[in-house]
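FYI - complex with pyridoxal-5'-phosphate, inputs then prediction.
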Amino acid sequence: MNLKIEKVKESRINQIDFSKLSFGKTFADHMFICEYKDGQWQNPTIKPYAPITLEPSASVFHYGQAVFEGMKAYKDDNGHVFLFRPQENYKRINKSCSRLAMPEFPEEWFDQALRTLVDIDSEWIKPGFGNALYLRPFMIATTAGVQAAPAKNYLFMIITAPVQAYYKGDVKVKIADYYSRAANGGFGFAKAAGNYAGQFFPTQEAANEGYQQVMWTDDATHQFLEEAGTMNLWFRFGDTLVTCPTSERILDGVTRKSIIAVAEKLGIKTEVRPVKVTELIEASEKGELKEAFGCGTAAVISPISGFGYKGKDYSVNRPAELYTDKIKQAILNIQYNKAEDPFGWRVQVK
Ligand SMILES: *Cc1c(COP(=O)(O)O)cnc(C)c1O
């Protein structure tokens, strides 16, 4: 890849208060942009973060061909910068692309663009647990014209946002008994913009009833639990941690996969199997539901304090010693180069 680099004349970094960042609102100096036309990716460029211009008829606005990724860059106390399992994101965006009839982006280009961008803006990454540069690669269809067909032109871009430790408090979730975020044969496994658009309204409705998120169930029966908001889902029944199997309806999260491996290493028993709504309710009533949480790159782990189902509320009976705390710390230690990385997940940028 012949990467062109245009740097900012003057960094904006001194205008930023890093102690008051709200998640995903502040962007670092540079972005990566690459065009797809005439059947090829071309003009890969790193340049100052700035608005882009598109035709009003650009197909992304009308037919929603848009996919994205979410990852982070971390800094240790010696100023070394690391990515966490980036290969997983390179592969996953291409799975999303192929399901939305979009061209794949070459993994080597993705890797080189991301590392160069992170390196150029590495001052924007502060050390310390929770501080990171959130990386948002995405692809959109840009062909002008409202013809309902896959576009011929695309943009692949990466924008980056400095973020702080992000703790929204424990969440109460509403179990979906009517709405679905994904269906068999659909594209729930893809990180596609449309999956998010479809979630907002049911989530707003849940919020009006006092819940912060929706716990999604399968579209066919609404009896099996699938994801929590935009996170993968975990339960602790007695002393066993359980997560639902991935499927074409569920996003195959990097954090979920990492938790499976880390929990085993910590000697915590894990199971990957379907979980029924009725099992959750019974466990809560018997006091055997000891933890519940969502997991994803943004928060690592987001604890669930209780859930509502058909108008009734249930609680999670949390013991003093939580698996979630141990697992979260173990993952942070790997990400921030505070511990050995027996899995080979940490990738140094420079
Ligand atoms: C991104 C995402 C996740 C979490 O994936 P990570 O790779 O762990 O960040 C889970 N569910 C949905 C629907 C997502 O979009």
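Residues 171-336 form a domain with the D-amino Acid Aminotransferase; Chain A, domain 2 fold (CATH 3.20.10.10). The pocket of pyridoxal-5'-phosphate is lined by residues 70, 191, 227, 230-232, 251, 253-256, 296-297 (CB under 6 Å).
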